[in-house]
From TrEMBL:
<comment type="similarity">
    <text>Belongs to the aldo/keto reductase family.</text>
</comment>
<dbReference type="Pfam" id="PF00248">
    <property type="entry name" value="Aldo_ket_red"/>
</dbReference>
<dbReference type="GO" id="GO:0016491">
    <property type="term" value="F:oxidoreductase activity"/>
</dbReference>
<dbReference type="InterPro" id="IPR036812">
    <property type="entry name" value="NAD(P)_OxRdtase_dom_sf"/>
</dbReference>
<dbReference type="InterPro" id="IPR023210">
    <property type="entry name" value="NADP_OxRdtase_dom"/>
</dbReference>
<feature type="domain" description="NADP-dependent oxidoreductase">
    <location>
        <begin position="53"/>
        <end position="214"/>
    </location>
</feature>
<dbReference type="InterPro" id="IPR020471">
    <property type="entry name" value="AKR"/>
</dbReference>
<dbReference type="InterPro" id="IPR018170">
    <property type="entry name" value="Aldo/ket_reductase_CS"/>
</dbReference>
<protein>
    <submittedName>
        <fullName>Aldo-keto reductase family 1 member D1</fullName>
    </submittedName>
</protein>
Length: 237
């Protein structure tokens, strides 16, 4: 089983010593990326330092995920960083038993993903937005050509109107679009603030102003895997 699959029935069968009453079924279990890597190493490389790729069979991987759900190891199953073509491959798979309930992708006011969002809506797939507040400025893996999201004047001006932060406005924007957000923070105050987004609503005009911020540029490009046959970001969406 390739490392693109978060959970494998082979790793966690019902008679596994690791399956106990203290380990409830996961919800959801997610295929973390369509670009899979072989073996136990997190980032396997050859003697020249080049990444070693697994010949990805997305349909076979999805069948393993379906088996996990059927075995009671996952309440629901989804994917991450799949583009439309890769989603259609799963949705059109002969004998499909369970379609993905979610697709976890980068989504924020500078990268609103309107076409992928609409496609997923049509197929009852929930978009889960990672990096909803932008991300770190580590240029070793982040595209720093796009400015820091939380410094945006539009987000800050709207936040001032509601006595909210730019981060809270960005989160509220996606929530109102039907996008699940998963902000990451180690700061207790910011974690509390991330939950304090249900006591105000953005107007239609404000939603359009924020939508207009879309630059269609990713912060998280995963360029180290751009030559993988299933690298998902070569397609339009």
């Amino acid at each position: 089983m390739s490392t693109s699959t978060l959970l494998s029935c082979q790793w966690l069968s019902r008679d596994s010593p690791f399956r106990t009453s203290v380990l409830p079924p996961l919800s959801p279990a997610v295929v973390l990326s369509p670009s899979s890597l072989p073996g136990d190493a997190i980032y396997p490389r050859d003697e020249n330092g080049k990444f070693i790729y697994h010949e990805t069979n997305l349909c076979a991987t999805w069948e393993a995920m379906e088996a996990c759900k059927d075995a009671g190891l996952a309440k629901s199953i989804g994917v991450s960083n799949f583009n439309r073509r890769q989603l259609e491959m799963i949705l059109n798979k002969p004998g499909l038993k369970h379609k993905p309930v979610s697709n976890q992708v980068e989504c924020h006011p500078y990268f609103t993903q309107p076409k992928l969002l609409e496609f997923c809506r049509q197929h009852d797939i929930v978009i889960v937005g990672y990096s909803p507040l932008g991300t770190s400025r580590d240029e070793t893996w982040v595209n720093v050509s796009s400015p820091p999201l939380l410094e945006d004047p539009v987000l800050n001006a709207i936040g001032k109107k509601y006595s909210k932060t730019a981060a809270q406005v960005a989160l509220r924007f996606n929530i109102q679009r039907g996008v699940v957000v998963i902000p990451k923070s180690f700061n207790p105050q910011r974690i509390r603030e991330n939950f304090q987004i249900f006591d105000f609503s953005l107007t239609e005009k404000e939603m359009k102003e924020i939508e207009a911020l879309n630059k269609n540029v990713r912060y998280v490009e995963l360029l180290m895997w751009r030559d993988h046959p299933e690298y998902p970001f070569n397609d339009e969406y």
